[in-house]
From TrEMBL:
Pfam families noted in UniProt: Glutaminase (PF04960)
Keyword Metal-binding: no
Name of this chain's protein: Glutaminase
Reaction(s) catalysed by this chain's protein: L-glutamine + H2O = L-glutamate + NH4(+)
Organism (species): Phytomonospora endophytica
Length: 303
């Protein structure tokens, strides 16, 4: 399929929504972004990259990094992580504390903050440096050697991280962290604060469209593991809006409060969109509209 026209049309459909929603402002470094920015890129399984708008502009990937920490943890440590984190949608905001107490310190899924903190902890034990492991993976898949953590964002996240600290201490009180809280959080912030573009993220997510096979032809995940990761993305990747996202877009996807959304079209490619204005659940308003237009015009979805 030729994608350029579909990307142009998706951007046109989203343009009236640019500037709508709220830009994440819990740290100054995120609030400073251009609210009307928009980019979109697809990296296909056969090596093509098509893009539109600000697809080459780096933004803070935030929770999209949780996808990469999970796949590395599965690749290096296997299914043991599922004893410490569930695979059910939470129906709660991404930074909610409420379910953790009634569910004995086992987060509902790896994409809410509590679950991602547990995954980061495991990845840190497996690699010795979870933040660097995620950045190294992204550099390898994209070939973008400049891709890295934005230290200013990471530092401000730590300075405004009371809720994540509370989650991490709560997890530790249930024995669900292997490393000290401060170590786990600094690695969690390091991967959330990575700056990357739509093009980078589409290239980095493409292995999931290739059923687990990386850019160099080696395999990160088995076909079955890739299927399962896509399933968790579909049900949990956009938090308490996962139902609405599946309804409108029909693809597995992971959003971040930087305004990016990375989606997977299994067998076809990885598609990333970015626009900073967020809806109440923390998903990009124009980004969801563009993905909706793209899957409608191409007919590509998992349904
Ligand atoms: O931990 C946080 O709150 C941020 N570093 C990441 C949150 C995020 O991107 C949630 N996604 N929509």
């Amino acid at each position: 399929m030729r994608f350029q026209q579909h990307l142009d049309d998706a951007m046109a459909a989203a343009t009236p929504l640019l500037g709508r929603g709220r830009v994440a402002d819990y740290i100054p470094a995120l609030a400073a972004v251009d609210a009307e920015a928009f980019g979109m890129a697809i990296a296909t399984v056969d090596g093509e990259v098509c893009e539109v708008g600000d697809a080459g502009r780096a933004f803070s990937i935030q929770s999209i990094s949780k996808l990469f920490s999970l796949v590395l943890t599965l690749a290096l440590g296997g299914d043991a992580i599922w004893e410490r984190v569930g695979r059910e949608p939470s129906g709660s905001p991404f930074n909610s504390l409420v379910q953790l107490e009634t569910e004995n310190g086992i987060p509902r899924n790896p994409f809410i903050n509590a679950g991602a903190i547990v995954v980061t902890d495991r990845l840190h034990s497996l690699t010795g440096d979870a933040g660097t492991a995620v950045a190294d993976f992204l550099r390898a898949e994209t070939g973008n050697t400049l891709l890295d953590t934005d230290p200013a964002v990471a530092v401000s996240e730590a300075g405004h991280g009371h809720r994540n600290s509370a989650l991490a201490h709560f997890l530790a009180s249930y024995g669900n962290l292997e490393n000290p809280v401060a170590t786990v959080l600094s690695n969690y912030y390091a991967h959330c604060a990575i700056a990357a573009s739509c093009r980078d993220l589409a290239l980095a997510g493409r292995f999931l469209a290739r059923h687990g096979v990386l850019a160099d032809g080696s395999r990160l995940l088995t076909r079955s593991e890739a299927k399962r990761v896509n399933a968790v993305l579909l049900t949990c990747g956009t938090y308490d809006a996962a139902g609405q996202f599946a309804y409108r877009v029909g693809l597995p996807g992971k959003s971040g409060v930087g305004g990016g959304i990375l989606t997977i079209v299994p067998g076809h490619g990885a598609l990333c969109v970015w626009s900073p204005g967020l809806d109440a659940a923390g998903n990009s308003v124009a980004g969801v509209a563009a993905l909706d237009a793209f899957t409608t015009s191409t007919g590509l979805s998992v349904f």
